[in-house]
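Postdoc handover notes: sequence design on the structure in folder B. Input tokens:
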């Protein structure tokens, strides 16, 4: 029996050795790795990676798109995944250390699906990836358009709103409403109060810092949407700000709130 166990172990070791040692520099990608059932292969994360909760037990290997190369080299990963790199030169350092770096933007649901397929291949879990792609397409299916103009406030001081090409813009399109700033060819841009007064929305999605007194505010209180209570504040902004597995939850909440009569 011991001899048989030893033989089986010899066959198992190469398979175990094939498992990636992953460092994720993106909260959305960290969530995706867990969704695909490969969370055990994560050995470190970026500072903002905080979901699922168990990921907070992992060491921090840098900030979003900004790796701590000394820490990374010490951890000896085989794979680093990221949406971007603040310093593109660190990619060369990783390549010289025989660390594979997979870098690809993820700004829309469509790009999230591309990441799912990519990691399905890289992590050798195509069936899990296929199931996740089908789930997202099913649960975030585009809805028929309705006549409703929506403003998405990213930040309120200074005022920053979501324009064309942003994750927010893509979500509004899928929900079937019009992004009032959708013709502005900048994903996130600083808006003037005068522009907003001139282009009044029917509803507002608020993912800036929480405010409980918008109706009493000297500017926001003058907007029709605020006066009528048409302001959507989600229980967790990560649901619509991270293009990861939970984006479908955010989509459902937006659809429910923005399509109300």
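Designed sequence:
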């Amino acid at each position: 029996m011991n001899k048989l166990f030893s033989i089986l172990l010899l066959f198992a070791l190469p398979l175990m050795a094939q498992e990636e040692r992953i460092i994720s520099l993106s909260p959305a990608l960290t969530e995706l790795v867990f969704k695909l059932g490969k969370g055990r292969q994560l050995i470190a994360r970026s500072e903002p990676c905080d979901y699922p909760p168990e990921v907070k037990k992992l060491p921090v290997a840098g900030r979003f798109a900004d790796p701590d190369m000394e820490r990374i080299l010490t951890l000896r990963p085989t794979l680093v995944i990221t949406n971007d790199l603040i310093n593109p030169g660190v990619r060369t350092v990783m390549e010289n250390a025989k660390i594979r770096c997979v870098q690809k933007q993820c700004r829309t649901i469509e790009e999230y699906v591309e990441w799912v397929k990519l990691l399905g291949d890289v992590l050798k879990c195509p069936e899990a990836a296929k199931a996740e792609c089908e789930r997202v397409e099913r649960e975030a299916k585009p809805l028929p358009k309705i006549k409703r103009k929506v403003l998405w406030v990213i930040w309120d001081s200074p005022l920053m709103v979501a324009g064309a090409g942003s994750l927010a813009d893509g979500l509004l399109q899928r929900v079937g409403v019009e992004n009032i700033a959708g013709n502005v060819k900048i994903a996130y841009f600083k808006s003037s109060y005068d522009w907003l007064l001139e282009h009044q929305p029917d509803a507002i999605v608020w993912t800036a810092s929480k405010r409980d007194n918008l109706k009493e505010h000297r500017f926001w209180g003058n907007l029709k949407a605020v006066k009528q209570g048409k302001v959507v504040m989600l229980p967790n902004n990560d649901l619509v700000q991270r293009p990861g597995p939970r984006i479908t939850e955010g989509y459902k909440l937006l659809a429910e709130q923005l399509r109300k009569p």
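Context for whoever picks this up: The domain at 13-138 is CATH 3.40.50.1980 (Rossmann fold). Don't rerun without checking with the PI first.
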